[in-house]
Amino acid sequence: MLILANVRERWSGFLGAFVAVLVGVALISTTLVIYDSARPRVQPRYDGTTALALPHKAADADGSPEDRMPWSKAEAEPLVAGLDKVPGVADAVVDRSFYAQAFEGGKPVTDEGALESGHGWSSARMAPYKLLSGRAPSATNEVVVDRALGVAAGSRLTVNLTEGRKQFTVVGTVDGPGYYFSEAFAERQQPGVAAIALIADEGTYEGYEGYEGVDTGAIVAAAKKVLGDSGDVVSGDGRSELQPQYIEHKRFLGVQLISAMAVLGLFTTVFVVASMLVLATGMRRREIGLLRTIGAAPQQVKRMIIGEAAVVGLLGSIAGCVAGVVAAPVLRSLLDNLDVAPPGMEVTVAAWPLLTASVIGVGVSVIGAWTAGRKAARVAPIEALLDSRSANQGMGRGRWIAGLAVLGAGVLLAIGTATSSADNRINMAIFATMTLIVAAALLTPAFIGPVGRFLTAPFQRGGSAGPVLIRAELVANPRRAASLVAPVIAAVGFAVLLSGMVETMRVAYPAGEALKVSGQTIVTPDGTPGNTDEVVAANPVGKAALPTRAFVLKAGSAAKADKGTEQAGNATVLDVLGSRDPRWSKPGEAVLGERTAKKLGLTKGEEVPVRFADGTAVTLRVGSVLPDDPARGDFVVSRDLVRAHDPAALTDDIFVPGDAKASGAVPGTALHDAAEYALADYRTDAKLTDSLAMMLIVIAVGYSVIAVANSMAMAAHGRRRDFGVMKSAGGTVGQLLLVSVGETSLVIVIGAALGILVTLPPLAGMASGLSQATSSDVSLHLSTGTLTTAVLGTLVAAVLAGLTVTARTLGGRAA
User: Fold this and answer.
1) What is the distance, to the nearest Å, from the Cα of residue 800 to the centroid of all Cα atoms in its chain?
2) Are residues 716 and 574 both part of a single domain?
3) For every residue of 441-500, which 3-state class applies, written as one string?
4) What is the pTM of this model?
5) Is residue 506 located within the same domain as residue 578?
6) Where a domain ends, among 181, 215, 240?
7) Which domain range does residue 581 map to?
8) pLDDT at 144 over 50
């Protein structure tokens, strides 16, 4: 009862912690709700299927449908025949998907899913998409298209395929997206079988007692018996595994973004709530002293403080969850604007995101209160009542040890930023900054007094009492000042770090990429997902890598390479490049990078069976093992070999040397010199990077500014007796308000300086790493505009909060 009474009577003292928990939980719950809503969904074109039969995954699969080893035509035929006879199955359809894109007016029709827009006619049954006009395609030059394309049956249509542009006769239209060709033509484009769809006969069970629809379980069980060791059967939500590549890529980018937001939100919540609870507990020293004087044991005091924090954390978490649910559609709209939200994603609110966010909110509050309450409960009654200077000034041994240890860890992480890989460099810099922010907050009481003396010294010569009072407050209560400084360090630190990373990368990446391709003309896709063979033929000189997904079987598997996908467990899935460079494209040979050769346990001269996208295997000889070179590839074979086994593969950017002439005559292509290519390549990710950085800056700075305002308001409210005494001693309201502004401004200046200092080592490490990665001179770059905005925004919020509470206090006393 005492805990609830304290919260009710001292609500103004807990308001700051409540708001901090509310904002933190709202941020975490929003990101978790969006994360849960962005889970892979069953695509509309599979809505009419009961189950999908899929080949086995490779041993090192990471969850992508491309990691399943396709069946060959010979392997798939008996499986399709057996699945077609499963009771309750009306049809077993081989699902083929490949690149197809219409050309109108000499330009490719915008189609995000062009990589997987081509299908055999039977695939239309999986949705099912209905034939609205015309008939099904039967000849290899016929196609059925989406009615939304606006092309009538009987028209001629140019469709871009892997081989290039080709004329087709539109023989029909359907009510769904895609281009539907004859089965013979689709098989030629994608010989391998990656999925067999089972379409149920809903009339099979009709008339049975208790009939409620298709018996999916029975169909799945029977299908598994047909497949045996050849594959898997998925149904229900499991069908979402076959998500198109472009949707999976968007989902990956969106998840990366909201994960960064969640991590930053979690750190900021822990940091801000803990600092505010330390501040709130420190301001209750006299109250705690009275409780200790009347006989309260240290454990009772600690339980009271933790209980109050738990109540405040619970109330803040409930309010935060409500705010998070309300804000989820807003975040979803932001992801849409950034083009990283999966198409058709709907915001659904499940229980686990809200429960997780609530547990975090209450847990952070309790842990923060436990940390603050330990020291408060050990204070002797008379010491708390006197509010002695020594009790507020010194840093305990534990804080010194923790601060120095965290500082050392931060320095090591900053050094590691320079040597980490490109994929980990940004995360390493963020973690280093987080660690250094914590270190700065822990060590601030040790030097805030000397810094305060130094900064106020020039203002004491005029005889004004203001600078003396400001300096005295910092010297007498360094821990309270440190609690006020902490959120400022976080706000400025994250603003400087994130904006600095963007500015540094903006200079580094284009310069490094331009250096790599200097003197070359690059042929890139323009409105298409890749270069077709028609484009490659128009540019016969230069690098034209043809990528495919292949499965390298382990030693001893050669004799069984064509015996079925039971070998998938012995296979390693790899990205293989087909090259037309005579150095790397000798027939029957493969060139491996050292890392890949070590992974596969192969050496020069050994033979290795490789199974390609069409489901057939070829035994290759390791012709060379060379140092790793991303420009060459880790597993390189003849381009002709890749094309023979993967007719649907598209060519990457084509690099034409300066002594040859590049051609952009084929529609859907563009030519770039080295500088243009580097800038265009960077701009592809720059928009997302800039937006991500800005969102994270807004979150970190906005949250920290709220915390700063709350902290200043709490501090001003806690010093109302001090201001009353100074007013009684002759201080005018204007003078006391100036003192409040001066104290607040000095705290902000110190916090901003520390926020900048903690970001310099990680940013310097990142610049050093980029210099090595790009082989160019990369220096550290800061965004002065972002820094100025963060400092001024924090300063204005803090001053306004402090002035509002101080003026109200002085006005009330004047009255």
Assistant:
1) 35
2) no
3) HHHHHHHHHHHHHHHHHHHCCCCCHHHHHHHHHHHHCHHHHHHHHHHHHHHHHHHHHHHH
4) 0.75
5) no
6) 240
7) 521-681
8) yes
